[in-house]
Amino acid sequence: MNTSHYSWLFIIITILTIVVSFILIKPFITAALTAIVLSYIFYPFYTRLENIIKNKALRSLVLLLIIFSIVLAVAFPIIDLLVNESVTLYHGANNADITKITDYFSKIAGENIDLNFYYRETVNKISTNALTSLSDFIFTLPQKGISLFIIIFMMYYLFKDGDYIVTKFEENLPLRKSHREVIIEKFNKVMYATIYGIIVTSIIQGILGTIGLFIFKVNSPIIWGLVMTIAAMFPYFGTSVVWVPASLIKIFNGDMFNGFGLLLYGIFIIGLIDNVLKPKLISHKTQLHPIIILLGVVGGLKLFGFVGLILGPVLLSTLVAL
């Protein structure tokens, strides 16, 4: 076999190895990317701990314990509140009397409209879908547990060996030094701007949400405002986990003014802030057009889930830099 045959064989083996390796790690790519993003976010805390804990391994372990202790301390009260609210909402929806609404629409239409039938059908479908989603979530718990283990495991070593990994990555980038510096600078700038945009937008949404809850007479508005601030950082549902159920409970209890008022306030005030302010803040910090940021956020969410909220803009900005 001549040299050219050996070269082609090597290329084929390399490509096959890459393909098989990708298939191997594909189920856990999101977990790995999440670990990278979280490590990047918390790495400044790791460096500050150096004055207290010199040993890198122990420092990484302590920081991980602190992070997950805070997450659990925040998550459990919020989950408890949301579960209680969900039960209240379910009972309110089940026992709601919509006769007044039916009579109102019947007068407008000039004929009898049986909204009660469609209402009950809708409530039953929503309940069924909720139970299906819950059973699907429980069914996938083992895989989620593995993903969580991968995140923790990777974060430990990314903290411990972060400097070495980043240095080796920079050295092995197939680019000129000046080009590498531009790419890395752009990456850092967009990562910082995206995290900054998420946090600032969430705080503003939380403040506006608290004001709305005060105006429309929802119990414990400050507590629920804090829940909205945290929930605003997460895609798909965001602050709506608070103001949608709260407004529906008001409506089911016959408080139409405050119920529909909060619903409209949530859609046009709280909801629009996320879609308008976040891309604007990120684009201002990165000097990228808001369209690129918006496409990065939406595309990233669809491709990677929550972590795509940060990775999407980073990838598009890196493309622009390249």
Structure description:
Helix 2 (29-48) packs parallel to helix 6 (141-160) and helix 3 packs parallel to helix 10. The chain has helices spanning 3-25, 29-48, 56-95, 99-109, 115-139, 141-160, 162-172, 177-215, 221-231, 240-252, 256-286, 290-304, 308-321. 85% of the residues lie in helices and 0% in strands. The chain is built from 13 helices and no strands. The longest helix has 40 residues, at 56-95. The radius of gyration is 25 Å and the shape is elongated. It has 322 residues and is mainly alpha-helical. The chain starts with a helix and ends with a helix.
Which regions have little confidence, pLDDT < 50, spanning 5+ residues? none
Helix and strand string, N-terminal first?
A: HHHHHHHHHHHHH
Round the Cα radius of gyration to an integer and report it: 25 Å
Secondary structure: number of strands: 0
